[in-house]
């Protein structure tokens, strides 16, 4: 890793687990720095898709805090619904956290 370059965090939530990649490099030529994954707990598997995606983001950012703290970074997810999360009027408490 090169701390002078901006980081990219890519996250995804699956039916039974979460995964994340910390990468660096120019667009389209990112190089992985760190891979993360974990299995969802039984009660987390019952979360809605948007709740799982939010959980994946929270978990990835908490896990990668050492690399990201005080630095600008991009966050990439494949879940389109998250693009309007900041404009939601009634937030689900779990999603808000």
UniProtKB/TrEMBL annotation:
<keyword id="KW-0808">Transferase</keyword>
<dbReference type="Pfam" id="PF17917">
    <property type="entry name" value="RT_RNaseH"/>
</dbReference>
<keyword id="KW-0255">Endonuclease</keyword>
<dbReference type="GO" id="GO:0004519">
    <property type="term" value="F:endonuclease activity"/>
</dbReference>
<keyword id="KW-0548">Nucleotidyltransferase</keyword>
<dbReference type="InterPro" id="IPR050951">
    <property type="entry name" value="Retrovirus_Pol_polyprotein"/>
</dbReference>
<keyword id="KW-0695">RNA-directed DNA polymerase</keyword>
<keyword id="KW-0540">Nuclease</keyword>
<feature type="domain" description="Reverse transcriptase RNase H-like">
    <location>
        <begin position="2"/>
        <end position="97"/>
    </location>
</feature>
<dbReference type="InterPro" id="IPR043502">
    <property type="entry name" value="DNA/RNA_pol_sf"/>
</dbReference>
<protein>
    <recommendedName>
        <fullName>Reverse transcriptase RNase H-like domain-containing protein</fullName>
    </recommendedName>
</protein>
<dbReference type="GO" id="GO:0003964">
    <property type="term" value="F:RNA-directed DNA polymerase activity"/>
</dbReference>
<dbReference type="GO" id="GO:0016787">
    <property type="term" value="F:hydrolase activity"/>
</dbReference>
<keyword id="KW-0378">Hydrolase</keyword>
<dbReference type="InterPro" id="IPR041373">
    <property type="entry name" value="RT_RNaseH"/>
</dbReference>
